[in-house]
Each structure stands twice: as structure tokens, then as C-alpha cells.
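User: Quick one: structure for sequence A, then sequence B.

Assistant: Sequence A:
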Amino acid sequence: MGFFDLKAICAVCDGEAGLHRYRIANKEWVCPTCYKKAGSSLKKFIAKATADEIREAIAKTSNNSTELDHFKATKKIGTLVEFDDYQKKWLVLSEILGRRNRSIVYRYEDILDFELLDDGESIASGGQGRAPINGGYFSHTGTMAGGLTGKRRTRGVCNSLQIKVTMNDINDPVVYIHFLKNAKSKRDEMVYRSLFEQAQECVSTFQVICDRENNQKPLTETAFSVADEIKKFKELLDDGIITEEEFHKKKLELLR
């Protein structure tokens, strides 16, 4: 009995897997429809994916479609990157015509670090918990000044200019933004200078986002911690374990 004579059930949807099915972990099968719904995040290692992981990927893809519908760009950089600062989300546009129909929506808080790569060489980097990029500083427009020029390569032609963003996502930990990909461009020409300025603006924007996230997290955690402590002492007061004077004294100590 050959492969095409065997009937198989999709481990995800319980429907017939069909002839063009895919083998997954635990010697199970997934149908082409579920495979497609799972999106691109699992396709590289579909043979090792479990049915639960595929269900999770399908739910994530469906949720991303909803987020795309509600995404409202407040900042655009060329035809490559968009930011929704109200919802604190961002996305990379399709390299073809700058469309967002297949884009993945990412959250600001999941950005761990990033690098600007010129022909594979890191010329600027930053991220959460890190100092401003290569000693550079931000102007009032949010664009980084200084720190980049000295690190740029001196070779006359550039083949690749991209930003590598590391995300807090075990299934999709790296996002690339390609400003120049497999195309030679002279560094003294307008095309390269324009793309480099866009990359510089994008790097600066990421650092501003990370700085804001760094500033917000400790404050939020502290606020919750103090509120919880005050609540505990209020309960002790209500139970008659401490006096009102002791409660107010402890409250003032916590709020300082």
C-alpha cells in the first residue's frame, strides 16, 4: 500500500488531510488548509511542530489579521516601516509596493535590541536597557546625530543595508528591515544617501521607543508594589492589629 492509498486525518481540524498533507511531530498529519492558516512562523520547522503549536500559530495569524485592520499609522518611514504610537505597535511593509496585507504587527514592549547593518557590519545598535546608540544623541526631531558617521564603511559600493530587530518571541525572534537588498549602490549617490537617512531615522525611532519602555516599566512595577503594601497595612488597621497612627506613618514611608 503506497502513500497515496493511505487516508489520514488532520491533527488540527480533524478533517481529512488529503493527498497534499504535511507530516508533523508525533507521526501526525496536517492538512494544507491548516498549514496555510498557520502562516509563515512554523513553515521552516513544520516536521517538528505539534498540533497544539500549529493551533497556536493559527490563532496568532488570525489575531494579527484583526490587528492589521485596526492599525493606524502615526509615523511612516519611506515605504518600509510604519508605527502606530497610539497603540504602541509597529510593522514592516511588504518590499513590493509597500503593502501591509501580509505584515506582522509587533508590540513596542517586545523590542529587545536592534542593529543597523551595512554590508553585514554593525555600525549602530541599541535597545532596552542600553545607552544611546554608539554615543550618539537625539535632536529635537528624534533623529540621531553623531555616532553613525564614524562607523560607516569607506568602501565605495554598498550591497546591503538593513536593520536587525531582536524580538521577545521564541518563534519569531528576529525581524529584518531591508533598505537595500542584493543591489549595488554607490555610497556617494542620492539613492544610497536617501536610504541611509531612512535607516538612521528608523534606528533613532526604535531607540526612542526603547527609552520610553525603560522609563515606564520600573514606574509601573513600583506603583503596583507600593499600592499592594498600603493595602496590606490598611487590612491590618481594619483588623485592629495596628493603630491608625502606625498605618499613616507606614503609608508616608512607602510614598516617599
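Sequence B:
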Amino acid sequence: MREFSAEYLRRTREGMWDDSREALRGLSLDDRERVLDVGCGTGELSRVLDSESPDDCEVIGCDVDVGLLSRASGHVPVVAGDATRLPFADDSFDLVVCQALLINLPDPAAAVSEFARVSSDLVAAIEPDNGAVTIESSVDDESGLATRAREAYLDGVPTDVTLGAEASDAFATADLDVVRTARYDHDRSIEPPYDESAVRSAKRKASGEGLADDRETLLAGALTPDEYDDLRAAWREMGRTVVHQMVDRSYRRTETVPFHVTVGRVRA
């Protein structure tokens, strides 16, 4: 399974569900008694589940990374565990949910089967389609370069990070009845006044640091070393334009990541 830093999870999940929680309606959170958030990371979704559930509902976070769990433990109880070998008895929860987890697993259906084992009722997966991400930017080259980098990155990732709505296939394999699907678009916008995270992101573009961090994955697909060097040079030039626009407070960017919420019911 791919590993992520607390900073990466904070940056990519920041603000998610702030504008609307309608896509979570199929989770029936208002009548849950015990909920498990698998692959909870630093607990962003766990906190949403806790706030939307009844006061007497217990929400528990579970993740294989104990370092990330330490960031979530101040909000909900947490337990260390692997998504395909959960440390819970059968039917321990009436809802088991994950967010952006299945896309990082080599066998999503195996994890969903394990979710079904420990759930007496519902299983839900909130998974992005990273192949359908869109970017609107005041820097002319940013959207096109981001698409080139994303396509090369996706080509080099060994798991299906475009899973999205196709998570329902894993549910069918796990003998779950899909009862609801919904789409939620997570918009992440940058506009003046720029916060520290936006400034840091612009500096990473200008230095090419982000592409350097992903070099191994980018080269694992069809991208050649020369093509990588050309892409990184263009990326750094684009980043310098971003910085210049930030200086005169004209830079604006919106990234939209589509998530698909699949809810299934355990068969009696």
C-alpha cells in the first residue's frame, strides 16, 4: 500500500465536506450506533462522521500508520490495523467507511470483503477519480502542464487511482448490494489573500520540488528521462509565473477532484 505524510493528507483533504454533506446522506449517519473509518489517516473524515452521527454513536478510526493515528487520536478513539485484516470481530459495527483508500490498494475487493465481515449493515467507500481532475488557473500553462504530469503519474502508479464510481465493482465482488451512489466534487481554490500553504505550493512549483519527489513514479510509466526533464523545466517556468502573479495578487486557481460515494448493504 502507498504511504502518505500527514502534510499531504492535510493538504489534499482540507475543506472537504465544508460546503455540502449531501453526498453522505446514503450513509444513514443519523441512526448509526457504531461506525468504523478505515484508513482514517489524520482523522479528517472521522471528525465529519462524528459530527453527523448521534451523540451516543461511537466513531472509531483505524489505520495501519501509527504516526498518522497519533494525529487523529485527539478527536476519536483509534486502533492500529490493516484494511485487509481488521482487528475486530464479525458484525462489530453497523457502518464501515473509507475515503480515498481503495485507490491505493492492489486488491480493493479484498478490503471491501473485510469491511463487510465487520459490518452488520452498511459499507461505504468514498473514492476519487483522479483521471477526471480539472484545473482552472490564471496562469495559461498550468492546466495543460498539470494534465501532462497527472497522466504520466497515473501511468506509473501500480494501483487504480481512477477508481471513482467503479468502486461498485469491488462491492459486487464482495457480495454487497449497492444501495446508493453519489458524486461529490471537492473544489480546492487559491486566491488572494494567499495563506502559507498556497505560498509553499507556489515555491514548490518554481523549484520543481514536487515533480522531483514524484520522479520515480513518473518514470515507472511511459515517460522517458528526457521527457521528464523537459516537463520539469516547463513546470518550473510555470511555477515562476505563479509566484510573479502572487506578488501582484492576480493568481487564482481552482482544482476540482470528483469523488464517488458508493454505499452497499451486507446481505443477511
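The beta strands are 34-38, 58-63, 78-80, 93-99, 119-128, 134-137, 176-190, 253-266. The chain has ten helices and eight strands.

User: Thanks, that's what I needed.
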